Structures are given as structure tokens and as C-alpha cells.
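Quick log. Single chain, no ligands specified.
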Amino acid sequence: MKHKKIALTGGPNSGKTTALSVLKETFGPQVELVREAATLIFSGGFPRKDNSRPHIEAAQRIIFFATKQMESLAEKSSDAQLIVCDRGTVDAAVYWPDGAEAFFAHMGTTLDAELARYDAVLHLSPPSNPAFYQSTHVRTENLDEAFAIDRRILKIWEKHPNRMIIGGTEHFFEKAEAIKNFVEKIIRG
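-> predicted structure:
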């Protein structure tokens, strides 16, 4: 079965995890969710004691390959019409110390090849109001850093031909409606 696949991406605290719950609740078995590899890896004990080059490179290599494997597993085992990936393989490149081109060369691929893995991209931006920004044990960035990451993610996905961007809103309900409408169009074809 050939699945449609979208990458749900954006800066930290933009609502991606909540969006996945909304999509599963709305579309049920029509969607298969692929969880974010970075959260699984960092929650599982990967050392984050510093932002040294060896730590960053090791983490992003693991995240890239774990993302590919989890997506592949969903494609092979799911009967859902749509696979929704919490982040895509492209995202890891924005954290690579030597830039995206060096990242993709190191991973043995290209930006274009990775963009082609996804039928659509849904980009969520962090909330513009600092009162709504939340740090966690996995999300260590402050709001300014979150916006800087969000800008890099926006830039790296800009060549994808089917991308929707939903800016930071104070009320997630606004985002949720736009997300549901976008996914419904993808499912319907």
C-alpha cells in the first residue's frame, strides 16, 4: 500500500505533539502517527550535558536514522491512508554545526531527496506570547532560541512544493482547525 506522508514540523513548543493527538482523535485509523525521534532519544537518557560538537553530531545522526527507521516501519506496518511524522528527516540538518549541506553529505543523501520523502509539510510556529512558552526536561531552549530554530526550519523546508505554515497563535484551537483542514485535504487527495 502506498501511503501519503506528511512532516509536521516547526520550532520548539509550537504544538506539534498536541496536533498529533488532535489528528488521531479526529481521523482515527485514517492516520498513523510517527513520534518525534529527538524526544524519544533525549527522554531515553542520551547525554545532554553540553552542546559540544561531538554531542550535537552524535545526537543528530541518531535522530536522522531513527526518524527514517520509524517512518519505514510505519509505511510497512500501517493500513492508514496517511502517515503523519512528528518532524521529518530534514529537521536534523538545522542543528548540524557545519550547516545543512554538510549534514546531508555526511548522511549520504541530499536535501532534495529528503524533501521528496514527504507529500506535504505542515509547519507550526511557537507562540508569539512569552507567557505561553513552556520549557521541559527535553525542550531546553528559551523563547528567543525557539524562534531562531523556527526560522531555520522554515528556511530549510521552503523548497517543498506542498507546504502550509501556521504562525504562532495564543489559542491552540485556531491552529487545530487549520491543521485538521489541511490534513483532511491531504487524505481526500
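Helices lie at 16-27, 37-43, 53-77, 100-107, 111-115, 143-156, 172-188.
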